[in-house]
Amino acid sequence: MGDADITASRWRLVEVGRVVLFSAPSPYVGRIATIVEIIDHKRVLVDGPSDDEDKAVPRHAAALANVALTPIVIEKLPRAIGNGALKSAWKAAEVEKKWESGVFAQRRAQSAKRRSLNDFERFKVMRLRKQVRFEEKKALAKIRASA
């Protein structure tokens, strides 16, 4: 038989140490926590030890349907780790810093900002985008003419 080359998939896996983001039906919408234990194929035990009370998530069982897996993972986190040890691992891995600087959080903030615009502000954004598009076309035409 030939040699088999086995590579891991690039999908985000449900694993202990994976940081998750809570979505709509949860009371912790928009907050992040980490998976501490896998209960079954639909539920996980999560804990979000943030210093800020508005961002903290208490340890509880959460349905996988109500969370989104993020690309952030706390490496080598033991199963069912205690709250104190998790808090120190959370700080050591700089989870909140990675989250805020990541594309996932930036896109969420941008879409929230867009949703909060009033009618006149949306009109101004449209006008600015038209101006940018016109300048890009003008620059591209200049490059094509010189080539």
Automatic annotation (TrEMBL):
Molecular-function annotations in GO: RNA binding; structural constituent of ribosome
Keywords: Ribonucleoprotein, Ribosomal protein
Chain ranges of the Large ribosomal subunit protein eL14 domain: 58-132
Keyword RNA-binding among UniProt keywords: no
Transmembrane segments: none
A GO term from the CC aspect: cytosolic large ribosomal subunit
SUPFAM superfamilies: Translation proteins SH3-like domain
The keyword Ribosomal protein is annotated on this UniProt entry: yes
Gene3D superfamilies per record: 2.30.30.30, 6.10.250.2270
Pfam family, one: Ribosomal_L14e
GO biological process entries: ribosomal large subunit biogenesis; translation
InterPro entries: Rib_uL2_dom2, Ribosomal_eL14, Ribosomal_eL14_dom, Translation_prot_SH3-like_sf
Membership in a protein family: Belongs to the eukaryotic ribosomal protein eL14 family.
Protein name per the record: 60S ribosomal protein L14-B
